[in-house]
């Protein structure tokens, strides 16, 4: 009673219901609380809530962003560690084709496009969340609402949020600001990415080139060169076939380089720059230098004056000097080789084919630095002629019959120490000391004089080779240091393998394959040139190989001297020094001859090139962070939108406008703002700018779900939830649960008898308990016990009859059933009437309506009631009294055949199992009532009516509201006046109820014929031309 009284403070039925709605705000809206017939938000599939375009933008944009990011990572890392040699063709095409900058620009454009589209959609989503969850000031609602439909990005929304007089949720503002920051940052993606580019060496694709490898007409005169030693060496790159030999002297003093194969490309030094790979025919220099302790017979050194041929070396200039050292004697090749433990060449028994007598100049120094000056004495060159005439090959041993012989000397004395002109120094074997490949004559007064003898084998071949390098080879230049006046020879010595072990080889190609070795007249000619023409074919040739002075017939370019001296000074290995010198000579000769070779062959070459390549990762990381950051913002906003909104369909302008134009808060504003500026509207709302949200409204905003449609033979009729015809479709169980909140209800009590007295009324229940009170409200429905019991008190005629006899059977057989539908079938039923419809058959009506939406939001319980004209219903022998479920189903199914298939679905899907036990409806013609004592009847107990007009519950609620008012406004201490008020109330509701009962008896027949527009849910129906499309989509 207390609860009821409280409720009666409300003005009318709808207000009463809304008061319940207020009470249950926490349980979402009243609609959510009672309407299991509404399709809830979570049932909205993504493509429906977001829309196809927005879904595509968000998910497609995400894919594009991640795809572009992946592509950028591929560009940044695709180079690999080998200069892009093994990079994918796409990577090479982009970078080597110089498309990297356009590609980055295009990628950035794609990223920006994807982000801009996503940001725009997310702005709509953010505006939707704001409007539905947070609310915005009324002055901004138009703009925010329109932002849901059309927008250019988050800037405007962030501006609205920041400048809003009412703070929106901080998290919402922060999220939109993050989206804005991310959207701005992504605009700089191209700049960030391009900043990572740097020029770097990349390996180009192979190209084929024609290269001269032979002389067609064997016009060797054109190739002849003289004294190449005098010219600055022309250093070429070469590859070296790996060999295990070292030139370290053995215990017998033999220092043997073994056969070293150095492969020179048929390319000038300039065209070798940046070469990474070569496949073709090349020149092979085979060389072997073996140095050992010489056995000399009668070695003498003589101080002489000489003529104008005396030259001064060491600072690059020549000038006559008047002082010279000469040495002479004979080499004992047999003993020399024997001491070194090597065999004579087969074609040179006893070493007799090799030149023995020597007579050469010696170098000397003019300062007192004690620096060794070295020179080479070549006692004879004739055996080198064999290189022209014979098809010779490298010997198995260190010495061959065609070996050139170098007698190398070192002395560490200055001119003053050698004595006067004409003095002769006979070297004495007693002063002899062996040291590695050297012998050293040591005297107290004349100092040291060292000798070693070196045998050279050298051939030139051609071979098909494949050579490569992973990095660009820097040509080992010989740089002159102006300060130290030295030539920096280390890089070249490293290339030539004549540096310390700690210094790695460089300037070399790796030889990957080596085959088809051949020799031509040209290669033989080159080999001979290396000897005869270079050395001027002079017997007892003296070559000064260090920075000393002396006479020579072969002036050396300072570069050769520097390299030779440095090798001797660092590794003290004459074999390597000689080999280095001959390699430089071969390189210089080839470099000069190559352009003159007119017989060409194709070779495949691969060069490196400097191209802009992603080298740094700073920009890529920054862009990756921005893209991931943006995608997270998009994902977060989309998730919030899906979880938190129900009514917004971003991108739909009409809906955005409709929410504005139909909203309670905005409607009046819109009417007044026809010619007003936004500023004027804001000004007007300055002091009263309420927070506005989009929510389902009884009058506007949401889509209407309380609709009943009559599909009559004459056309469709409709009553729907509009401001003029407000109606609510409530699930009976949930409504009862709501109404019973806070009310002390004793369940499972069945009233059996009622006793009234002047001071109280008592109800006796079937379980033997009883309850007494001041007033009894009989709200026990059509089969009311209260109505029956009243007869015992005042005995009015109408109340004496037992309940059922008082009731009048509605002349229709009632069949009812239930079923569960989902997907397209559910959608179809809702389209026919959301939430109920009545279809007219030949002699029946079929009511069908949704009862409860399942938690998955995709299926729901439906129920149907078929009322078929039948005057005999209620008679004890009527077939339905003994009919099984199957019998009833068959009847309903058979009847329904007259309807279109869509109207038959609920019956046929429910089947026999879905059949319910309904048989008939009752109403009653209750016109008179006894005076109220302590029992008052309301609802169906007072005026039982059929559901034909759907008004029974409305009447029951109205009765309750009215009763509450009567009690609240009465003086409860004055029993007589209270009884009078209740009595008047009772008569009033019976009268109104009876009126509805009478109308209800004709409603359906009249609707069928179209004679009269029926009422339903308390409102007159209006014609409906066509079914509205549903604002929801359930079918997958
Ligand atoms: C198919 C169908 C469709 C309908 N559709 C609509 C519609 O769309 N709109 C509308 O407004 N109305 C509709 N109605 C009518 C509406 O359901 C009733 O008018 C309404 O329920 C009456 O409410 P009430 O409280 O008076 O009685 P009831 O709702 O019948 O409640 C009576 C309660 O009293 C209990 N009771 C009965 N006897 C005893 C006893 N001896 N002791 C203890 N408790 C007892 C019952 O168990 C029941 O809980 C429909 C009715 C039907 C059958």
Automatic annotation (TrEMBL):
Record InterPro entries: FAD-bd, FAD/NAD-bd_sf
Pfam families reported for this sequence: FAD_binding_3 (PF01494)
Superkingdom in the source lineage: Eukaryota
Coiled coil: none
UniProt-recorded Gene Ontology molecular function terms: FAD binding; monooxygenase activity
Record domain FAD-binding: where: 928-969
Sorted UniProt keywords: FAD, Flavoprotein, Membrane, Monooxygenase, Oxidoreductase, Transmembrane, Transmembrane helix
Transmembrane segment boundaries: 50-78, 90-111, 174-194, 617-643
Cofactor: FAD
Name of the protein in question: FAD-binding domain-containing protein
